[in-house]
UniProtKB/TrEMBL annotation:
One of its GO terms (cellular component) is mitochondrial matrix. GO terms for molecular function: 2 iron, 2 sulfur cluster binding; electron transfer activity; metal ion binding. Its main location: mitochondrion. The gene is fdx1. Belongs to the adrenodoxin/putidaredoxin family. The lineage of its organism: Eukaryota, Metazoa, Chordata, Craniata, Vertebrata. InterPro entries: 2Fe-2S_ferredoxin-like_sf (IPR036010), 2Fe-2S_ferredoxin-type (IPR001041), Adrenodoxin-like (IPR001055), Adrenodoxin_Fe-S_BS (IPR018298), Beta-grasp_dom_sf (IPR012675). This is 2Fe-2S ferredoxin-type domain-containing protein. Its cofactor is [2Fe-2S] cluster. It comes from Takifugu rubripes.
Length: 164
């Protein structure tokens, strides 16, 4: 404690503008005092880390946006406030199939594996194809940069069909 008090006095006396908190927060000084290592993790990916996504909307309009690796395509639609009618009604809880998207063959092969739960929900989607996936279950990665995701002509909300 005496050492800490001495350092505190020293920081006030000789550093003036340089606050004790700032000093303690710096990796080298803070680590020396606390015996811990510290590091900074950026929460925002660099612009170059963004993944370009092209949505083809029901009316044929192409919407090009950028998302971050790890985000789902539903996240991208929400974050970019895209106007895709009825998309993502269950907010990614695998209960609606309104986030149904159709991919090109080469992109479809790069997507992660389909879980049984997603497959069950896909079976209820309108206009199912061999390259269909649910947007809430597809996460972006750099290898998917430039992907094209086609929104089907119509949407089926599985919750309504289950309700009758
Ligand atoms: S948002 Fe409902 S299943 Fe994807």
């Amino acid at each position: 404690m005496a050492l800490v008090a001495a350092l505190r006095r020293l920081s006030h006396a000789s550093l003036g503008f340089y606050s004790w908190r700032a000093a303690a927060a710096t990796p080298t000084f803070g680590a020396w005092i606390t015996g811990q290592r510290s590091f900074t993790v950026g929460s925002q990916p660099l612009r170059s880390d963004k993944v370009t996504v092209h949505f083809i909307n029901r009316d044929g309009d192409k919407i090009t946006v950028k998302g971050s690796p790890g985000e789902s395509l539903l996240d991208v639609v929400i974050n970019e406030d895209l106007d895709i009618d009825g998309f993502g009604a269950c907010e990614g809880t695998l209960a609606c199939s309104t986030c149904h998207l159709i991919f090109e063959d080469d992109v479809f092969k790069k997507l992660g594996r389909i879980t049984d739960e997603e497959m069950d929900m896909l079976d209820l989607a309108y206009g199912l194809t061999d390259t269909s996936r649910l947007g809430c279950q597809v996460c972006l990665s750099k290898s998917l940069d430039g992907l094209v995701a086609k929104v089907p002509e119509s949407v089926a909300d599985a919750r309504q069909s289950q309700d009758g």
